[in-house]
């Protein structure tokens, strides 16, 4: 999972840390480990994690949660 948020740990300090990610539309949650950092302001989730969170299929339809 790539962490791309304006708050929280940055750079090397973020690698290996965990975040609780919530699909705000359904309330589904999971914990992810940060392995990289990107610059688009979101989380780049592994497809298996995305599918765990996208319990109603809306994220797949929109291309994001």
From TrEMBL:
Domain of life: Eukaryota
Chain ranges of the Barwin domain: 1-65
Alphabetical list of InterPro entries matching this protein: Barwin_CS, Barwin_dom, PR4, RlpA-like_sf
One Gene Ontology molecular-function label: RNA nuclease activity
A Pfam family annotated for this UniProt entry: Barwin
GO terms classed as biological process: defense response to bacterium; defense response to fungus
Keywords for this protein: Disulfide bond
Protein's name in the database: PR-4 homolog
């Amino acid at each position: 999972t790539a962490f791309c948020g304006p708050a929280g740990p940055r750079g090397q300090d973020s690698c290996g840390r965990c975040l609780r990610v919530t699909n705000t539309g359904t309330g589904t949650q999971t914990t992810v480990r940060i392995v990289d950092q990107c610059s688009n302001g979101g989380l780049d989730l592994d497809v298996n994690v995305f599918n765990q969170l996208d319990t109603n299929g809306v994220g797949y339809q929109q291309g994001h949660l």
